[in-house]
Structures are given as structure tokens and as C-alpha cells.
Specification:
alpha+beta, 6 strands, about 25% helix
Length: about 160
């Protein structure tokens, strides 16, 4: 596993998370990641995870009045992607994502998203993510995903 470029300093990882949050609330506020208005809460260096909170908003509901499945997928992808950016400092595109819907979210619910780096290789990253209702601890969905490694050996973004 070629992961020597992953950050191991909690302060550096948290700086990267806060940078994502700042960009999403300013220059990307009109894009889906900005509109979700996630709160980037914490990271765990040993587990290679980040924790994000999403409050379910009216525009995220489907016709039945519950959190839309596509938004659930986006939240899971965002949690995994944020973990990659936080631990590497660079952006990597999603290659595939497999989602398992377990429950649903309601308007106003706060969902805790956790993104985890499973493996970090020269060419791809394997990730896991989950969404859990903060109030009830009910598991809403999980995913496994693959991201293309767009970083050079020193962890810088490839041109």
C-alpha cells in the first residue's frame, strides 16, 4: 500500500477540512456541496476518517417527503471525497460508488457522514462511507467507492 503521502498530523488534516468548508460556503455556495451546507466536524488519524454533519433541507426531499436517494448518494460521495482531500490535500475523481440504502432521512434530521480511506495506492483509493441519524443512531446508508489517484508521489496534484 503506497500511502506515504497521506497526512498524519491531525492539525493539517483539520486545516484541509476547514478549507473545504470555507470554499463550500463562499466560492462554491451555489453548487451542490455548498448548498448541502455541511459542517466538517472532526477526523481520526489512526482510522483515516473524517466526520461531517448534514442537516436535511427541504430541497433535498423527494415526492414522498423523505431524503432523496440521489442526495444520500451525494452525501456519501462527499464524505469519502472530503476524507481524501483532508488526508492528501488534493482532489481525486470518483470512479465508482456502490450504495446500500438502509433507512431514510426526514426534514431537519442531522445525518453524521463518515468517510474512510480503506487503501491508498499509486493508482486508486478504496473508500467507505456511512450516514447515521445523529438523534437516533439509525444507520441510513453505506457505500464503498473507488477514486482515481490524481496525486504525484509527493502528494501534489498531477497536471
Amino acid at each position: 500500500m503506497a500511502n506515504s503521502f497521506l497526512l498524519t498530523d491531525k492539525e493539517a488534516v483539520m486545516r484541509n477540512l476547514k478549507k473545504i468548508e470555507e470554499e463550500n460556503s463562499s466560492i462554491h455556495s451555489d453548487r451542490v456541496n455548498g448548498l448541502m451546507a455541511a459542517d466538517y466536524v472532526d477526523c481520526d488519524i489512526d482510522a483515516r476518517t473524517v466526520t461531517i454533519e448534514f442537516q436535511v433541507k427541504p430541497w433535498e426531499l423527494n415526492r414522498a417527503g423523505v431524503l432523496h436517494g440521489g442526495v444520500i448518494c451525494t452525501m456519501l460521495d462527499h464524505a469519502a471525497g472530503a476524507a481524501l482531500i483532508a488526508f492528501t490535500g488534493g482532489w481525486c475523481p470518483t470512479v465508482d460508488i456502490d450504495v446500500r440504502f438502509i433507512s431514510f432521512g426526514n426534514l431537519g434530521d442531522v445525518l453524521i457522514g463518515t468517510g474512510r480511506i480503506v487503501t491508498a495506492g499509486r493508482r486508486i483509493f478504496h473508500m467507505e462511507s456511512s450516514l447515521v441519524d445523529k438523534a437516533t443512531s439509525k444507520l441510513v446508508a453505506t457505500s464503498t467507492s473507488t477514486y482515481l489517484n490524481m496525486l504525484d508521489k509527493s502528494g501534489n496534484q498531477k497536471e
